[in-house]
Amino acid sequence: MTGSLQVAGRRGIIRRYLDHLPVTDSTPIVTLDEGDTPLIRSERLSAEVGADVWLKYEGLNPTGSFKDRGMTVAVSKALEEGSEAVICASTGNTSASAAAYAARAGMRCGVLIPSGKVALGKLAQALVHGARVVEIDGNFDRALAVTKGLAAEHPLTLVNSVNPFRIQGQKTAAFEVTQSLGRAPDLHLMPVGNAGNITAYWLGYRESIDAGWATSTPRMFGFQAEGAAPIVLGHAVEEPETAATAIRIGNPASWEGATRAAEESNGGILAVSEDNILAGYRGLAREGLFVELASAASVAGLRKLHEMGVVEPGSVVVCVLTGHGLKDPDTALRIGTPPIAATSTDEGSILAALGIG
Question: Residue 11: is it exposed, middle or buried by C-beta count within 10 angstroms (0-12/13-18/19+)?
């Protein structure tokens, strides 16, 4: 066989939504075939809360998180503008995505991370894709401040969610939800860290009406961990603490966008406990979905809204699962059942170890 192989299906979000993104014929498309992630109905959660609950599993993007949607647009536009290098601050997922898309584009990538605060799976991704990773003393907010300064003074393209092209790419997840359901959900629930994603979904739902994929918008609810809940508290948190590292952010860059999404949609930004996030994580695993811990904040939030009487019977609810569980294998190993040492390899011993018979 000669010539190029034409593959149907996923071709990346820029080609799928070309008319809805800020790109032109001269934009070089840097893609890893991101997007088109599954919307999975949760029978257990639907029965538990008396609603129709769907899980948007963004962990099946190429680098394992929703960040790829924004990064394909941000890096494509950076390349179009002649940039040779991108830079970001990260708690992990942004660095993994930026490094992969920069490698795809043949660009250099610099990453600043809080020392000792990034899950191993995410750090490994950034390193293997060739990013130059610098650990700094201080938290994510300090890392972002430094990267903003560097990008302002040097020929570097900042690809954190303050980059408007990131928001444009991430809004496509809302397009996919409305197209899959044939409508917008009644409630949309998601984790909130740096708050760019809830900002993007709200934009996407509003544009879905213009595109004819929906006739209404959902109530938007974002959930922060109790130890890292600056929007809920109304002030920055100097030392945010949560095991859900992806949302361990004390001063979200897209704070205003998140609060606007919540207010305009008659939703809210609420806090959920570590125990409830962990319960959500375990429950998703029992449904066959391996997510990183921060993803489970949306499920913890669903249960909180149910207790508050917000989830109306029969309503349609979408919970976003932002990242894959292999991003943070340490959590799974810490709480999972450890391997059992068999006393011998005879059949009886193995059956006993397996708890069978």
Answer: middle
Residues 325-340: pLDDT tens digits?
998 888 888 887 888 8
Tell me the CB-side half-sphere exposure of residue 5, using CA atoms within 13 A: 3
H-run or E-run covering 242? none
- Cα separation, 118 vs 207, whole angstroms: 34
**Do 88 and 112 meet the contact criterion of CB atoms below 8 Å apart?**
yes
* 215 neighbors 209 (Cβ within 8 angstroms): yes
Cα distances (Å, whole numbers) of residue 135 to 3, 100, 122, 155, 241: 45, 19, 14, 21, 18
Cβ-contact 281, 330 below 8 angstroms: no
Residue identified by tokens 């769907």 is 54
Are 12 and 29 spatial neighbours (Cβ–Cβ below 8 Å)? yes
Question: Which runs of consecutive H residues, i.e. helices, occur in the chain?
Answer: 13-16, 43-49, 67-80, 93-105, 120-128, 140-153, 164-170, 172-181, 196-211, 230-233, 255-264, 274-286, 297-308, 329-335, 347-354
Report d(CA 270, CA 291) in Å as an integer.
21
Distance of alpha carbon 325 from alpha carbon 16, whole angstroms: 27
Q: Can you give the three-state secondary structure of 113-160, one letter per residue?
A: EECCCCCHHHHHHHHHCCCEEEEECCCHHHHHHHHHHHHHHCCCEECC
Q: What is the pLDDT of residue 10?
A: 55
CA–CA separation, 170 and 32 (whole Å): 15
> Measured in whole angstroms, how far is the alpha carbon of residue 239 from the centre of its chain?
22
Tell me the pLDDT tens digit for each residue of 244-294.
988 999 999 889 999 999 999 999 999 999 999 999 999 999 999 999 999
Whole-structure pTM over 0.70, yes or no? yes
Say how far apart CA 36 and CA 11 lie, in whole Å. 9
Dihedral of CA atoms 184, 295, 315, 178 in degrees, nearest 10, equals 10
Distance in angstroms (rounded) separating the CA atoms of residues 323 and 182: 25
